[in-house]
């Protein structure tokens, strides 16, 4: 539970950072506004076309009597739109980060600079950073799509389909949302996708505490746009602690908004009970000298 609360504190600290640096808040809003317009159009189109899609996919129900045909197709229409909304929440961050790569790179670097210590730089040209980001986003979206299909199918199971499965969906969304946001700072440190996922699995509750509130808030129109700059800043603060750049994430979980300096062993620390073994990686040396292109799939 300490990690769960600690993840939320990183989110709050990130929002506090951008509010205290108003110029960077406005700077970071631009990519989110572009993505919002794209996704709003897509969801509106899905909302108008979901019932026609459901009717086309269920011709066997044309001869059913009322009200069963309406209830059946209405339920399927709700599931289709819910799946679209689930995918929109997950892909929104990936697309926004891809569109705003130069913006969020600069914001993340400024967070590192303002917190003191070394400011890591990837040393890669912009086109290559965009290529890495797009490649990793596609690999993450493939994983999310598999989870989405599985959860969509389980949604038909009575009782758990309307209670447990939606909760699991928010957790899956929150974990991968955290991965997308922390990837900005981790890529600059030369950490590939496989090690990024291992790092977050080792502190899964911390990742959920950060990502799940964001997923819930992103369901409210416009909120995602205004929270994105602070989410990138908070993810950078989390990465600094997990990689030993400024302190131990356990201190943040204990309730310190300003993480004190501590040995950089957070990434190899023992995870919360029931969440598997810790990743095999060291704290401050995480990803040093590693070419992101060499990371295995």
Helix-strand sequence: HHHHHHHHHH
Given the C-alpha coordinates, what overall shape results? elongated
Alpha-beta classification: mainly alpha
**Average of the residue pLDDT scores:** 78
- Biggest sheet statistics: none
Strand content: under 5%
Textual characterization of the structure:
By secondary structure, this protein is mostly helical. Helices cover 69% and strands 0% of the residues. The protein has 10 helices and no strands. The protein has helices at residues 2-20, 22-57, 68-99, 101-115, 126-154, 164-188, 193-202, 204-218, 223-242, 249-253. The two termini are 32 Å apart. The model is unreliable at 252-297 (pLDDT under 50).
Summarize the model shown.
This protein has 297 residues and is an all-alpha fold. 69% of the residues lie in helices and 0% in strands.
Task: Output the keywords.
297 residues; mainly alpha; 10 helices; disordered C terminus
Write the layout of secondary structure elements.
Blueprint: H1 2-20, H2 22-57, H3 68-99, H4 101-115, H5 126-154, H6 164-188, H7 193-202, H8 204-218, H9 223-242, H10 249-253
Helix pairs in contact: 1-8, 1-9, 2-3, 2-9, 3-5, 3-6, 4-9, 5-6, 6-7, 6-8, 6-9, 8-9
């Amino acid at each position: 539970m300490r990690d769960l609360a600690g993840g939320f504190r990183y989110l709050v600290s990130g929002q506090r950072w951008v509010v205290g640096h108003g110029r960077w808040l406005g700077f970071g809003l631009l990519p989110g506004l572009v993505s919002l317009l794209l996704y709003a159009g897509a969801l509106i189109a899905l909302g108008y076309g979901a019932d026609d899609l459901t009717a086309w996919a269920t011709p066997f129900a044309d001869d059913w009597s009322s009200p069963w045909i309406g209830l059946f197709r209405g339920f399927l229409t709700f599931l289709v739109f819910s799946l679209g909304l689930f995918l929109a929440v997950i892909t929104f961050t990936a697309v926004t980060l891809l569109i705003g790569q130069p913006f969020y790179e600069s914001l993340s670097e400024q967070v590192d600079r303002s917190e003191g210590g070394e400011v890591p730089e990837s040393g890669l040209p912009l086109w290559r950073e965009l290529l890495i980001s797009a490649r990793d986003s596609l690999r993450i979206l493939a994983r999310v799509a598999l989870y989405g299909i599985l959860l969509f199918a389980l949604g038909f199971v009575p009782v758990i389909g309307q209670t447990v499965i939606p909760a699991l969906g928010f957790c899956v969304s929150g974990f991968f949302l955290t991965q997308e946001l922390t990837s900005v700072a981790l890529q600059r440190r030369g950490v590939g996708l496989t090690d990024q996922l291992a790092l977050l699995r080792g502190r899964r509750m911390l990742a959920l505490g950060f990502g799940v509130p964001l997923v819930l808030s992103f369901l409210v129109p416009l909120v995602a746009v205004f929270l994105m700059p602070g989410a990138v800043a908070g993810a950078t603060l989390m990465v600094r602690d997990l990689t030993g750049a400024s302190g131990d994430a356990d201190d943040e979980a204990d309730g310190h908004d300003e993480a004190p300096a501590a040995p950089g062993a957070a990434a190899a620390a023992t995870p919360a009970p029931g969440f598997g073994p810790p990743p095999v990686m060291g704290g401050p040396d995480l990803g040093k000298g590693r070419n992101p292109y060499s990371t295995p799939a």
